[in-house]
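ok trying again, last paste got cut off:
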Amino acid sequence: MAGTSTATQTEDADTAALSAALPLLRTIQIRGLAMIVATLLAMLALIVLVGFGAETQVNVTVIGLMCGIGAILWIHDHVRKDHEAEIMPIVAGTFGLDFVKHPVGFLETIPATIPPRSYRTVLDDGLSGTIAERKWRFAEVKTQSGGKNNRVYFDGAVIAVQAGASLPQFIIARHEDTRGSFWKGRARIDLSQEPLAPHSFGGWLTGFGLWSRQLRDGQFAPIEQLCDDIARSVGRLGHGAELCMIASDGPEIVVAITHKHEMFRIGGLFATRSSVLADIRKVADEVAPVIEVVTAILRAEAAMSSSTT
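nice, full thing came through this time. structure:
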């Protein structure tokens, strides 16, 4: 589906999404601008009411400006997310996919070790579909500790793909994430409860560890090849995309990918027709690689299954 017809689908996504959603996008922008005007008027009124002394007036003015800038940034982000919520279902639909802006419950059926979890979890931009009669789902995920000394444990995307056969249970994770250090603190991924020491491959620093309750020595080669095939494919998601973890719980293969940018950004408070159209084209170009990565996961899983039978 993501092959020769991708260019045509992209053009259809551009036209359909913009024509269907443009009136509502303008309404969202007008509402956002009205909120900014109301915020600025409130700040001005506060300065006028409190500003009897010179020193007090300066302090209140500075606080008012800081609050006003913060409010404008928050409103801009809110407007952009509303734009995405309106346009992304249309763009995803041109690829035969479903889209949910906030995929609540996405992680509920995924093994608790993937992705690295912490106290605060943010789920965004959920995609789901079917390829070769196999269901799959995607979401952007960020987990962090929160609080004063906030630490980000995972920032990227998670893809869960229905397994084609009953696969052995295993977990693959980067060494750098499972090993703590004096400088980095405790490990981002805690696999201390796994009963076996990991089988390592790919090098001490840049390689991976493989944990499995079912596999033994001599049975790791197909899993290593699966990891290698998937690792090569995730770069299609953009600059900085890297494989973090792979887990199989039998029914699904789950892949966690770190990346350095937020996907599917559309519109904003001061977006114009031309900029929204450019955003739609960029988003359509981001959806296609997600499908390609899912396809690569299916191919890798099929190759692993055939080599273990």
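cool. Residues 6-308 form one domain. The chain has one domain: 6-308.
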